Amino acid sequence: MGRDTRRSRLVIAALLIAAFTLITLDYRTGRSATGARGVVHSALGGVEDGVSAVFRPIGHTVSSLAHPNRYHDRADRLAQENARLRRDLADDKMITQTGKELADLRLLANKGQYTMVPARVIAIGDVTGTDWTVTINAGKDDGIATDKTVLNADGLVGTVASVTAHTAVVRLVCDPNSRIGARLERTQLLGAVAGGQGPSTLVFTVYDASFRVQKGDRLTTFGSLDYVAGVPIGEVTKVTDVGGLSRTAEVRPYVSVGTLDLVGVVVGRPTVDPGDRLLSPQPAPPEPTTPAPAPEATLVPDAAASPGATTQGVTGTPGVTGTPGATGTPGGAG
């Protein structure tokens, strides 16, 4: 028993010496070494590879158990990086959209010769049908006062109802308490636009009922002491006859109150009424088409009726015969 134990210890010691020898040779000469090291590797290399193949997955499992949060932490870092990239893309898109809205607002101000303060909608009022208002992030300190005209690149938004140092409440044009003077583009007929029919419908009432309103007529503000003239309002979609007279009409506003973001408050009036200059150009009516005249018929003399006769001018070129060499009898008698 003692002899077997001693022999086992010798075998283990010999294997350990061989293993350290292989490690040293691997480090110094690489796996391409020859000689004694190559012979030993050839003898024990298969055993080494087999042991590595068996115990490598076990080592990975033990490593993952020893560091259970390593992969979760990496997943969290990737998720945070993805969220950051998405925020950057959203910020770039918002900057681009804001730049376009500012450019359109500046173009409208230049056309109307308005002095405007840009502002952004930061809150929406109680839009229950009795109160249609929004709050913007500009106020008295920016030169804004009550009853000033508020618009965006599409047209009239409303008027300022109340103001604080840094904010203002805007009564939208569709508010039931809103009533703004308007003018028809086609006839310059005056009237008033009122809300109360929802966010997408206004009511235009003509002051002089003897004039007729037509579907497709466009409206702008005609101005007063409080608000400016020339701001596009909307387009007539339906005419209501009152006693045979077209006195009221439904109007579809140009501004969608559900997508309001950047607006401009007019703080400086133009010296001259801009009229209809801010309205987009109307498409030109199609020109009436006249039918093309029918081509005149060209009479060709019957060559058989006049033997030997030629036909000149048939094709518009004098001297060209209708049938080259044609005579009363094909081939011609001598």
Structure overview:
There is one protein chain. The chain contains 3 helices and 12 strands. It has 334 residues and is of the alpha+beta class. It has a 6-stranded antiparallel β-barrel with strand order 1-2-5-4-3-12. Strands 6-7-8-11-10-9 form a 6-stranded antiparallel β-barrel. The radius of gyration is 46 Å and the shape is elongated. The model is unreliable at 303-334 (pLDDT under 50).
Short summary:
The protein is of the alpha+beta class. It is 31% helix and 25% strand.
* Poorly predicted spans: 303-334
Categorize the overall geometry: elongated
Describe the biggest sheet?
6 strands, antiparallel, barrel
Q: Over the alpha carbons, how many angstroms does the gyration radius reach? A: 46 Å
Mean pLDDT: 76
Fraction in helix:
25-40%
Sheet/helix structural class: alpha+beta
Strand neighbour order, sheet with most strands: 1-2-5-4-3-12
Number of helices: 3
**What is the number of strand segments?**
12
Element layout with pairings:
Layout: H1 2-29, H2 36-66, H3 70-112, E1 115-124, E2 133-136, E3 149-152, E4 155-163, E5 168-172, E6 179-184, E7 190-194, E8 202-206, E9 218-222, E10 229-242, E11 245-253, E12 262-268
Antiparallel strand pairs: 1-2, 1-12, 2-5, 3-4, 3-12, 4-5, 6-7, 6-9, 7-8, 8-11, 9-10, 10-11
